[in-house]
Amino acid sequence: MKVNMTFLLNKEKFKENGTDPEIVLSVIREFASTNSINEISFCSFERNDEHGAAVLTKFLWDTVKTNYEFFDYFDSIILTVNDEREECMNLVKEYHDGLLRNNGKYVAA
Question: What total number of domains does the chain contain?
C-alpha cells in the first residue's frame, strides 16, 4: 500500500508570524523519524505498508488534541492512498470541533 501525506504551506501565515517553516516541519519530522515515515520531498511524507494510512493520520489526530494552532500554517493537507487523494483540513477541523463540544472526547456532530 502506497501512502503519502503532503502539507501545503500557508506562506502568508509564516510571514505574518515571523515563523520559520523549518521549525513547524520539525514537528512532523520528529514524528516521522520514530514511525518509519520517509520525507520524500519538502513537506511530503510517505510510508508504504499496511499501516501507513493509520500512522500518518494518527499524527493529525494527536496534533489536533495537543496543538491545533499548528494547522494554521497549512493551506491544505492531502492524504493519498494508492493514488486516491483526500483533502484532510476539513476532517481536522471537524475532529477539533467535536473535541471542543465534548470536553476532549470526540463525538461527531
Answer: 1
